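Input for the complex:
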Amino acid sequence: MIYLDYSATTPVDEDVLEQFTKDNQDYYANPNSLHNLGMIANNEINRATKDILELLELNDHELIYTSGASESNNLAIKGLAFLKKNHGKHIITSNFEHASVVSCLNFLSKIGYFIDVVDSDDDGLVNLAELEELITEDTFLVSIGAVNSETGIVQDLKAIKKVLTKHPKIYFHSDMTQAIGKIKLDYNLVDLISFSAHKFYGLKGIGGLIIRNKIKLVPLIHGGKSTTKHRSGTPATPLMLSMRNALVKMYDGFDEKLKHVKEIHDYLIKELNKLPRTVVNSNGYSLNQIINISFLDYLSSIIHEKMSDNGICISTSTACGSLNPVSLTVKRLTGSDERSRTSVRVSISHLTSKKEIDEFISVYKEIAKL
Amino acid sequence: MKIIRVTAMWCMSCLVMKKTWGKVFGKYPDIIIEDYDFDDDEEFLSKYNLSEVLPVLIFIENDTEVLRVLGEKSEKQLNKIIEDLVK
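Predicted:
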């Protein structure tokens, strides 16, 4: 089996998994209990939180542990919307957001909030002039993902922040799920950051929402104080520690990992360029881990199935749920229906080898009878 | 005239179109719009054989489908579609 779907999820790191198993035995006490074992668990969580924030170079922030990025996006968007209901009802987002952002916004639009979707330019970057035009006195939130999951295009967060700096009452939320563990970013540019551990070789079921200190949110899960007043529930100590461990491991030798990914990326692009009727939809703004490709002679679902039959895991757009995969992101980026219907995503990592890329290309040549 | 409008919570194009629908359909108070959710109203929608992108606007006149509009349309495009239909 060749796994080229690292942006969907990553395999859990063996050391992280081993330590998680151990932590389940060592830190089983409720961290909110006042006895010795509870306090030990609580101290471990506090240390993990401090480590995560330091790794991301955030020093005036709170980390809210969640079940993953979908919950984080819900908490950021709905939590602010419910809090600000008497002060503003207008949210601006981009046209390439994850379904968990889109669903929140569709939900809010049904209960009286107004949502504007800022367009992208020909490179897939947010149109900054339009963003500025869309801002009103009623705008309280701008939610723009850092990296598009289908094309890997990285937004210019600095430029977006520059626009928003003129409007200090507007919060800037970014879904960083595809960014953390893949690229270096200045995380201080945004006010609320969503992410998931399973995208950087951590376990599924744990993620985070990082907010600037002093930001308040209406919780989605009410209950006791837990590790924060913003999200209740008995803290899942081993999962929380595992997220820290995964992040520490991911950033260990990060430059070398990125160098390897670039080599594999460049090699894949070189091989793809040799194939007829094949175009790469990702562009110069895309990170190296995500390569969106259109094999123009095959619908996405067909190439996906044939690759899977040959033991190769890639992905298609899921933007339309159970309908035939058509990538609206690729359509917006390229203007081509043909490309959007034939688009697949290959996502690589520091674990990917040239041999795996050779096998991927070889399987495609077999499928296409080249 | 009646429009069966099919959207989904996760649908970006549905979110994109909301403002345009408000502007265009606001000019035609006689048009009845019935909203259905792609996931929640699966049984009702099964007879419409939805197989492409969302949102879907199914224009019904005298109990007969006269036009189906798929995906995102500009305000200008949607205005033209409605103007042609109500002529």
